[in-house]
Write a structure and sequence with these properties.
single chain, Glycosyltransferase, Ferric Hydroxamate Uptake Protein, Chain A, domain 1, 2 domains, five-stranded mixed sheet, about 15% strand, binds cobalamin, cobalt
């Protein structure tokens, strides 16, 4: 309680706000919102949500332990299913390990069954990291992404496992050679994750090839994160700012460097920008001034158990009036394009709009794959944009890249959407 009061006071001070109780109330309702999301049974339990709940000050221990049991059953099975399909599971496995760690679960007691062999989670992650290291050596990038590669290093490091110098070197090299991107631009989220992974190695004194080079990479990441700050305080966009501030804190930044970014996050929370549980899970820790590096010393003793889900009844959503017109242009990988038009109820999500368009039998079809962020658009008009071929369906509206997925993006005004099969 005392810690929370100090944290609140610090945050209020940094943001130039006199009222610390305002921050505490906001934090509590945001925390409850995330807790409530674990009651949903129509999606897999999400390890990132578990980590954020466990890094918080207030807890609902019964719900958290029930969630852990579901992770160990359903999420675990999903990872094994991917292994049977010969997919790499670096990022999801790393988050699973961090989630177990956040609940002080004995990692050695959990095993993955693959090719009729039983392996501990950490051993399996180490092997996949070696494989990714080879992929970078021969293909100049990991098969998954540098975001997942960083998560892998972070999970091993936080669990006290030695990370091979060759593995860490590949990440340091990628930072120095500006290879960490989301589409065409430098990826703020992945830099944040890389920063936390490399900072963990430094703090733990895990040997790297060249300590001075590690320091240079950390300084570069810090500078790039600070350079990504927009006039409104966000670093990158609304959805990367939480991780960016977390990384800066882990790297020892002073509050003054993050004050406006934290204030932007608080304004977003108030506006209701974060309703996707994955988005909440990436913002909540930093509002508690915690980072993933705190998982190293997680103790799970004498925890508060007062968090409830009696969230204030959600503000009534008024039925939207009228229809808006939507134009959907699809550009396939060979450049061929087709345009579809439809009228949809104002306020529909893009997912609902695409379903209506499909039902009209105009020739437009689509399908999605589940992910921790929700449905990822994977097939359009019978063409699949495969991540294995480093392609995806990029979505933009009136020329601006969407910052949310199809389930979260709401259409309030007439617009022209472009769905383009894009390489990355
Ligand atoms: C890497 C990445 C990508 C890569 C994924 C392929 C690869 N090389 O791994 C590519 C370039 C394909 C991509 C695409 C998009 N991305 Co992206 N992506 C990321 C990033 C940096 C890491 C994701 C990851 O690996 N997570 C770890 C693993 C363990 O979790 P996972 O759920 O299994 O990961 C998969 C999904 O996350 C999925 N995915 C990636 N991005 C997105 C976005 C959405 C909305 C969904 C549903 C799924 C999804 O691909 C991952 C690999 O298979 C995150 C950053 C973050 N903060 O999370 C942004 C992030 C998730 N992406 C984002 C966005 C907006 C998009 C796009 C919608 C951009 C666009 N305008 O087209 C598209 C998705 C369009 C579609 N077809 O549905 C936002 C989502 C914000 C939000 N509120 O929804 C994030 C948070 C970045 C940001 N700060 O804006 N992305």
């Amino acid at each position: 309680m005392i810690t929370l009061a100090i944290v609140s006071a610090l945050l209020a001070l940094a943001a130039g706000k006199p009222c610390a109780s305002d921050h505490e109330a906001l934090l509590l309702s945001f925390n409850k919102q995330l807790l409530q999301s674990v009651d949903t049974r129509d999606t897999l339990p999400n390890p990132s949500v578990h980590i954020a709940l466990r890094l918080s000050t207030h807890h609902n221990l019964a719900k958290e332990s029930e969630h852990l049991i579901r992770l160990k059953a359903e999420f675990h099975d999903d990872i094994e299913k991917s292994l049977r399909n010969n997919e790499l599971v670096v990022g999801r496995l790393a988050l699973y390990i961090l989630a177990l760690k956040s609940s002080c679960h004995d990692l050695e007691s959990v095993h993955l069954t693959h090719n009729e062999m039983k392996e501990s989670l950490l051993i399996h992650l180490k092997k996949e990291m070696e494989e990714e290291k080879q992929n970078i050596a021969f293909g100049h990038r990991p098969k998954t992404s540098y975001y997942q590669y960083s998560l892998g290093i972070l999970a091993l490091c936080v669990s006290g496992v030695r990370v091979s110098t060759h593995v860490s070197q590949k990440l340091i090299h990628a930072v120095e050679h500006r290879q960490i991107k989301h589409g065409e631009s430098l990826c703020v989220d992945s830099h944040a994750m890389a920063g936390m992974a490399l900072q963990c190695l430094k703090d733990e004194g895990i040997a790297v090839k060249d300590a001075a080079e590690l320091d240079r990479a950390l300084a570069t990441i810090k500078q790039r994160l600070l350079d990504s700050k927009r006039a409104d305080g966000h670093m990158g966009n609304e959805f990367s700012t939480g991780l960016a501030v977390q990384a800066l804190m882990a790297m020892g930044s002073q509050m003054e460097e993050c004050g406006s970014a934290i204030e932007a996050l608080r304004a977003d929370v108030k506006k209701g920008t974060y309703h996707n549980p994955m988005a909440i899970s990436q913002v909540l820790p930093v509002l508690h001034q915690r980072t993933y590096l705190h998982l190293k010393s997680q103790e799970c003793r004498n925890e508060d158990d007062t968090l409830t889900t009696d969230v204030d009844s959600p503000s009534e959503v008024l039925p939207s009036h009228g229809q808006v017109s939507l134009q959907v242009k699809v550009i396939k990988s060979n450049g061929a394009s087709s345009v579809f038009s439809i009228h949809i109820p104002r306020g529909s999500s893009l997912f609902e709009a695409l379903n209506l368009l499909q039902d009209k039998q105009t020739g437009f079809t689509f399908s999605t794959e589940d992910s921790l962020w929700g449905p990822f658009l994977s097939v359009v008009n019978e063409e699949q944009a495969r991540q294995t071929d480093r392609r995806y369906w990029h979505i933009s509206s009136d020329g601006n890249s969407l910052t949310q997925g199809i389930k979260d993006y709401k259409i309030d005004a007439a617009q022209k959407l472009t769905i383009k099969n894009t390489g990355y």
